[in-house]
Amino acid sequence: MFNQTPSKVVMQDNRNGTMLYPPPISRDRVICEFPKCYTPEASLELKKDWDIQTKAACSDRAARQQPWDRQKMSKVVIVGDLNVGKTCLINRFCKDVFERDYKATIGVDFEIERFEISGLPFSLQIWDTAGQEKFKCIASAYYRGAQVIITVFDMADIKSLDHTRQWLEEAMSENKPDSCLIFLVGTKNDLLPSEERQRTENDAIRIATEMQAEFWAVSAKTGGNVQRFFFRVAALAFEKCILKDSQDGATVGIGQGVSINSDCASLQEAARQDMKRSCC
Ligand SMILES: Nc1nc2c(ncn2[C@@H]2O[C@H](COP(=O)(O)OP(=O)(O)OP(=O)(O)O)[C@@H](O)[C@H]2O)c(=O)[nH]1
Q1: Contact 84 CB / ligand 1 (< 6 Å)
Q2: What's the ipTM?
Q3: Nearest Cα residue to atom 4 of ligand 1
Q4: Which InterPro entries does the annotation name (predicted)?
């Protein structure tokens, strides 16, 4: 249930309570150009470059030198039916592995992925929730405070696409309207012949438009579109943080500590406390 790779996150030294610094951000997590959408027919952003405010924040020297515990982080919650491939999607991106055998997620789990976006550090705290009905009440306790909601369906199981509306409704019931970026992701696209894939994508695009979500089709098995998808999530979440800071009246750098619920230290602490409570 509590499955973190220690090298990826900032750790606390238990002996004297001092904070240790995380290792440098890996080269394959550096995002320079604004990532493109999967299809303009169901996209949250059609623009091809960063906002002016983002560019200004990225060139701010002070923001680049923020201590790690004031760096920005967004909470991402992944929901969807059991067996659609949520865990595999996360594992393909975070660990570059693919597990053929199904192991149900019990409750929740999370990973932290660190990025460098146009010179600034930024992290995603990615929550994997259980699709099984019997674990739903545990998982739903973690929907609150999400900046991104990813609703996942299996491209080879059309019923799971129908259920995404319900999943989104439940996740949004714990969050303020319009507070989250929403993505609709079809997994296992390796399983479909191209004609059928196109039909399913058209259905998904229709539903994504209703949900005001951005649509992506991916395969955790082949890795197809997985990195591109998470880069897009990171870029849009990052821009949202920057815009929020400037709307809240902060100076144009990020990491001024105004968005308390999305800075690195407080999110990690909240996650640790939540996990502790659910284990007791
Ligand atoms: N062919 C193919 N199989 C996949 C893909 N992604 C996941 N699977 C398979 O689908 C099954 C379920 O994957 P999981 O990631 O465990 O599903 P989940 O949505 O996390 O399930 P819960 O934890 O019960 O909510 C596993 O047997 C995976 O091997 C994919 O992209 N292609």
Answers
A1: yes
A2: 0.99
A3: 188
A4: P-loop_NTPase (IPR027417), Rab (IPR050227), Small_GTP-bd (IPR005225), Small_GTPase (IPR001806)
